[in-house]
Amino acid sequence: MASFHVRSISLPKNSHPLTLAVEEQLCQLKASSSICQNLSGLQKLYECVEDFLSTQDGKCLDTVLDGSIMLLDVCSIIKDVLSQMRQSVQELQSSIRRRSNEVSEYMIFRKKITKVILKFLADLKNNKQNCVEFNMLREVEATTLAIFESVLSFVSAPKENKSLISKLTLTKRVAHSEETSEVMKVDIAVKALTKGIEVNNVQKTLGALEMTLQDLEDGLETIFRCLIKHRVSLLNIN
Predict the structure, then answer these.
(1) Which entry of 20, 66, 114, 117 is 20 to 30 Å from 135 by CA?
(2) For residue 234, how far is the Cα from the chain centroid?
(3) Which GO BP terms apply (predicted)?
């Protein structure tokens, strides 16, 4: 799973409690190693940001206003990527149940969606590099982008490894608790099926991935609503 780095913010010793609450949430996100926990923490972060914005005037908000639109667009695109991937997993499950094993369509989809994801990841890195001003609200923006990047990295295809099929029987070494293992196991299983290799519990593996994708979709939907509220709050500041 992709990790992300959050810059430390130098705050005055007598910072406002609402500012400190935002900073605390940023630090907790930095310490987290779970994508789903990060999405949950991001929701709490924006709740603190809302409280912080209620005390602010309109100074220096133009740049974060532009950023709020960008974050909404990015979140919407990632939700669409996850939805497409979950639908593709469901279609593969149906194909295997019918014993038609039409896995080639899934492989084609994975290649296409991976190209989309890699391009989008490059765009996200450019957005983060363009954040030259690092006040607290820009740090919130950068953290949000980093978490979005981790979600995309999770669903992107792993690097090609010719030994994956030969090591299929060793996949039990991958801990079931690792979120990355679900995507990798499905990719390994599908590649095995295309070579006529029987894979045990492939439906269970697909089901686990489908549930994780659904959880991520639900988490992003919650964040999307938070981002809408965040933009409205920014627009309402005089």
Answers:
(1) 117
(2) 24
(3) root development; shoot system development
Residues 6 or more apart whose CB falls under 8 angstroms from that of 78 comprise 148, 151, 152, 220
**Lowest-confidence pick of 16-20, 88-92, 143-147, 149-153:** 16-20
Give the CA dihedral 181, 184, 189, 192, nearest 10 degrees.
Answer: -140
- Give dist(CA 81, CA 113) in Å, integer: 8
The answer to whether the beta carbons of residues 217 and 37 sit under 8 Å apart is: no
What's the confidence (pLDDT) of residue 217?
96
Measured on CA atoms in the order 50, 52, 56, 60, is the torsion positive or negative? negative
Lowest mean pLDDT: which of 33-47, 48-62, 157-171, 223-237?
157-171
pTM of this structure: 0.80
Q: How many residues does the chain have?
A: 238
Six token digits for residue 235: 């627009």
- Three-state SS for 10? coil
Q: Is the Cβ–Cβ distance between 33 and 3 less than 8 Å?
A: yes
- Overall average pLDDT of the 104-131 stretch: 82
Structure tokens at 65: 């206003």
Residue 199 has pLDDT above 50, yes or no: yes
- Rounded to an integer, the average pLDDT of 79-92 is 94
Contact between residue 151 and residue 78 where contact means Cβ atoms under 8 Å apart = yes
How many CA atoms lie less than 13 Å away from 28 in the CB half-sphere? 16
Residue with tokens 């593996």: 205
